[in-house]
Design brief:
single chain; mainly alpha; 4 helices; globular
Length: 108
């Protein structure tokens, strides 16, 4: 049984917000916007993987790159400490990776 992309994305953003909330509560309001700017790229990567255009190793490399980009963008918020930025990026991408293993319905 697959999970819908909208549900996966919502869970991923909530996980990132939760990761930030304890370490940098003032930064929580920025997480959704920063993550939203990366959503289309993440979804396109998963669509390309599902279509066979990308292999598993390439997708893993691309997700590592996205994790780094998210962390850098989160760090740009001056009220977010490095650990909170790392935790938020890990939570968001980690949620997507877990859902990928279960199957994601990418049609919206």
């Amino acid at each position: 049984m697959s999970i819908g992309w909208k549900d996966v994305w919502s869970s991923a953003v909530q996980a990132a917000e939760s990761a930030v909330r304890t370490k940098a509560p003032k930064a929580t309001k920025f997480v959704k916007g920063i993550a939203g700017a990366r959503e289309q790229r993440l979804k396109l990567l998963l669509v390309a993987f599902a279509d066979g255009a990308l292999d598993e190793q390439t997708v893993e490399e691309e997700l590592r790159e996205e994790r780094s980009i998210l962390e850098m963008e989160f760090l740009a918020v001056q009220v977010m400490v490095k650990k909170a930025a790392q935790d938020a990026a890990n939570a968001l991408i980690g949620t997507i990776e877990k859902a990928l293993l279960k199957g994601i319905d990418l049609v919206v």
